[in-house]
Amino acid sequence: MNEQDGTVEATGVPTSEGSGPAQTSAGQKRGRRWFAAAGQVLTFRLPQWPGLTAGPATIALLMLLLLLARVGLQRAAIDGPANFYWQGLFSGWAGTAITAWLCWAVARSQPDQAAPRVSGGTLLALLTAAALAQSVLVYAAFLTPTRLFGYVPAWSTPAQWIAMVVPLVWLGLASMRVLWRVAGNGVARVLIVLITPLPLIISVVVQPPSVWWPQPTEQEPEEGGIALTEEVLLAQPQLLADALAAVRPSEPGHVNLFAVTYAPYASQNVFMNESATVAQTMAERFGAGDRTVQLVMNPATTTALPWAMPANLRKTIQHMAAVMNRDQDVLFLHLTSHGARNGELAVDAWPLETEPVTPALLKQWLDEAGVRWRIISISACFSGSWIEPLASDDTLIMTAADATHTSYGCGAKSPLTFFGQAMYVDALKTTWSFEKAHAQARALIDTREKAAGKTDGYSNPQIRTGMNIRAQLDRLEAQQSQQSQQGQLGQPGQPGQPGQPGQPGQPQ
After folding, report:
1. Does 247 lie in the same domain as 105?
2. Burial letters 323-333, b for 16+ CB under 10 A, else e
3. 166 assigned to some structural domain
4. What is the average pLDDT value for the chain, to the nearest integer?
5. 208 and 274, same structural domain?
């Protein structure tokens, strides 16, 4: 008892029952002391034990802070709307129970004469504080560049695993070290080696405490899928054969553009509309009308256009390569659908079962067919992930978004996606340069996404031009400009009934 001020120094920090500000100051000092100790643990140093005695209230407060931090940081890691899954709050507590038991066992193993003698509650509070500090640091390291700079290149799968595993191993080793130094016998140390990894494995692999999930994209009601009538089943093979047979071969002395559109999502008309728009733009601006094949999955086109299926796309690429002059002609491919972070192009063909097209498959088919000059356009969320697998010196590739953001405009009220509208209706009507059109489309999309209230950040359309194809595209641009001046090309119309700038939509 301190006779001068009536305080009790039970934890090494004076407290005052009669002074509110003094109590606040004491609490702040205790908080700083705990997080300083957490920093010492994470840097493999022993903490200063005096003043670290933890009762139930301290343990509960630290666990609550850790829970709130993880809830908040998980939400910050999700772009756009998200749903709160409150049941996730009950996940991962098995690991906490194991840690608590281990801390109790280690504390019990200390000899009676140990000085200072550390309680199990203090060990549990210390490890909880260390986990809290590390969670904040790790999330800050990953989220800060995205929030400050808007775009961080997508990490490869091995890099993602390394980024996840290294902090866990670090925390496990740091926890193991502090418990090891407190343990009083060999049995306790064996338990430390065997049991310390279990809570980390449980909390991340077995029972990950996920409380936020990205909000599902609103989509148009399905129209009952594709009707597999006898008429449709008999018509489809012939439709593909007729479409390929109608492709006019290469015209000597010209840079001919051959075009293929691919729209595999049947239940939303926006992709069918975009296929028609892009095909018409290629016909009007580049003379590709009779060198174009549309592959579309939609109930309205089952007896008019061949289905957008991987096998049909592969056959179409092979046929285009067979009839084009591979040294001078350019193959243009436009793929439009919903997109996933892993690069898969979404498929909706129910009741048919088809596989999604991926960048690796598309590159394989183009290489097999021997297509040299390639323009590849991907209108989908996260489509920037297609660039690296498809890039080459002879390829120009354009995407509606980068690898970490959604694109926009595939909702029920959207005649076209924002990328399809800006690129193939607005921008290409004034130029024959895909690079110039893409730059113009980027600015238009930025303005329209802001006006539409897109909440998860600018889609950030991407483009990559190979060093060899630029000269070939310059020849194509000069040729089309000359033909236009000579009246050999028609003026672009309004293909596909484009949507109005700034019209609300949803991510693709």
Report:
1. no
2. ebbeebbbbbb
3. yes
4. 80
5. no
